[in-house]
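User: Run a structure prediction on this.
Assistant: Running it now.
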Amino acid sequence: MSKEVRLSDPNSKHRACLYIVATPIGNLGDMVPRAVEILQTVDVIAAEDTRHSKRLMQHFDITTPMMAYHDHSKTDVTDALIARLEKGDSIALISDAGTPLISDPGYRIVDAALNANIQVVPVPGASAAIAALSAAGLPSDRFVFEGFLSAKQQARVKQLEALQGESRTMIFYEAPHRLLDCLQDLAAVFGVNRQVVLARELTKTYETIKRAEAGLLAEWVAADSQQQKGECVLLVRGADKDDVQKEDEGYRVFDVLASELPLKQAASLAAKITGVKKNALYQYGLDQRKQ
C-alpha cells in the first residue's frame, strides 16, 4: 500500500499551492493542527500584518519566512506571489485573525491564482461571524453577512433601510468606537423591538454575548463604556413575513400616490395608510427617480 501524500509534503506533485489558512480570533487554543503543519511547511506566509502575526508564529514554533500582503498591497506584490506559485512554491495566506477574505484581504490573490490554474486549498478554522451566529440564538438556517457598515451615519442609515425587508438573520462587523451609533441607527431603522445580539471580544478574556431588543441593547451599551471596546459582531433577527408584506404594500400605495402627488406628500399619506416609515418611503421615491 502506497504511503498517503499530504498536500504540504514537499515531494507532493501538488506542492505549488495557495493555502487559505484560518487563525484564532483570540484564544490561541483554537488553532487547528493542520493549520500549524501548513504554516510550518510552506515556502512563505503572506500575512496581513507580519508584526501582528509574529506572536502566533513564535507560539507555535513556526519559522517560515513571512511577507506582508493586505488590501493596500500593489499589483506587483500579487504578481510576485503568483510568479512564485507558478515556479512551484507553496504559499499560505493568513489575516490578522480569523478566516482570510471574510472582511479581510485575499480576494485578489485567490482570483489571480485560479485564473493561473493554481490550486487553492482552504484550511478552515475560526471565524468571528460564524462563532457569533452559533451562540446568538437567532435563526441560523438562512443568514446574510454584510461586513462593515459605512462609517458615515447618512450612508449607514441608507444601507440599513435597504435591508428593512431582509428576512434572513443579518450579520455585521462594527468598530468599537462606532458601536453605540450603529445600535441607535439599528433601533431607528428596524424598530426598537427588533431582536439584536452583540457578540464582543469572542474567545477572549472579556467575551460578551448579549441578546436584547434593539432599543434596550443600545441603552445597555450606552450605560457601560466597557462594552464599547474590542472586536464587535452584531446580529439582527430578520424581518418576519408580516413586516415584509406590510413594506411591500407601503411601496405599492406610495407608487400610486406618487404618480399624482409630490414625493413628500405621497410618502406621508402612504405611511399613514400602511404604517411603513415615512422616511423609508421618501428615500425609496428618491431612489426610483434616480433610476
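The first strand starts at residue 17 and ends at 21.
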